Amino acid sequence: MAHALALRGWRVSVFDPAWGARPPEAGHLAAALTPLLARDDSPRARLSRAGALRAAARWAPWVDGGIVDRCGTVQLAKSDEKEAGMRAMLAELGFPADWACPVTREEASALAGCPTARGGVYFPGGLRVRPRQLGAALLSRPGIAVRAARVARIEALPADVPSGRRWRAIDGDGATLAEAEIVVLANAAEAPRLLAASGLAATGGELPGFFGQKAIAGQITLLPAQAAAWHPPHCVVAGDGYVLPAVDGMCVAGSTYVHDAPRAVATAEGHAVNLERAGRLLPELAGAGLDPSASMGWAGWRAVLPGRLPVIGESPVHGGLWAASGYASRGLSWSALGGDILAAFLEGEPMVLEGDLLRMIAWR
């Protein structure tokens, strides 16, 4: 969000209580951006495709420089029957081969550089991303100021304020952090809480979906890439789970979904789930003898809305108040797209998304 606005000359203040608390290499080592396919080319699939294309364009300066790797993705079918179904789906959708093409088990294994369980679909544009480094790179754009601070509430300024500023961000001690014409809530599942603390929660039944947002925990597992019993993949291998190409000697495998979790924490049980899923994708891993209790990893949260579509848009009640939230498991797919949607609205640019999709992701 901040990067998209700064590209267009806006001055942006970003408030993140965790900023500077950990070095860029800490936390989530790597993640994948893989488009979603659906036989009916559903709204989620179309939104995923649009997001992948925007991300590839916006992140071009960091491609193949260690932050974003255009390594491609092999999406494996879950069974031989489903593999045939994937081929039929691609034939029906008619995508060009440089976007998605069917691959046999032998072709998938050649692309991955190691044996795969079966064939499926190959996305040449699949990305492996280092999220924290990418975030730091995006926020280094001139015009963006980042502060390690927590916004406890926001309040609307009187309409007659001469500066035209409409919003004030306030910390837990009641001090003003900033005043601005536009406020963007890009704080995932914390957004409803912040609105409630600000007295801006839904009243009279409006915005029910936004306030139905849930935080779902999940963890990834780090696999040693130098293990003698298996060969790390050269591309992202995905299906029921995923395994990414090595970063700093480790491959990321994931991921778990834990509903109603009190904390997001990596556990041996979670590592066992990730290892089992990874072994179903890469048969070598199944026999590598990796010990879940000795595995390392990372845990975090997903912000999920009913219908698993995000909210990207302006509040229908409060002008100048925007949200970009509910990205679920597709934060990378939708983040660059969300920034350009917001900026296009504010700048009067041609919109980067079809009208029906904009209505589906409107603040609801």
Relevant CATH superfamily of the largest domain: FAD/NAD(P)-binding domain
Shape: globular
CATH architecture of the largest domain: 3-Layer(bba) Sandwich
Helix-strand category: alpha+beta
Classify the helix fraction into a percent range. 25-40%
What pattern of helices and strands is seen along the backbone?
Answer: HEEHEEHEHEEHEEEEEHEEEEHHEEEHH
Name the average pLDDT.
Answer: 92
CATH topology of the largest domain: FAD/NAD(P)-binding domain
Distance between the termini: 20 Å
Tell me the major beta sheet. 8 strands, mixed
* Tally of strands: 19
Arrangement of strands in the largest sheet: 5-6-4-14-15-16-13-17
The radius of gyration over CA amounts to 21 Å
| The CATH C-level class name of the largest domain | Alpha Beta
Unreliable stretches, pLDDT < 50, 5 or more residues? none
Question: Which percent range describes the beta-strand content?
Answer: 15-25%
Counting DSSP H or I runs of 4 or more residues, the number of helices is 10
Overall tally of domains:
2
Describe this structure in words.
- The structure is a single chain.
- The chain has ten helices and 19 strands.
- With 364 residues, the protein is an alpha+beta fold.
- The chain folds into two domains: 2-22 and 133-213 and 306-360, FAD/NAD(P)-binding domain (3-Layer(bba) Sandwich), CATH 3.50.50; 73-124 and 214-304, D-Amino Acid Oxidase, Chain A, domain 2 (2-Layer Sandwich).
- Helix 2 packs across helix 9.
- The longest helix has 17 residues, at 331-347.
- The relative contact order is 0.18.
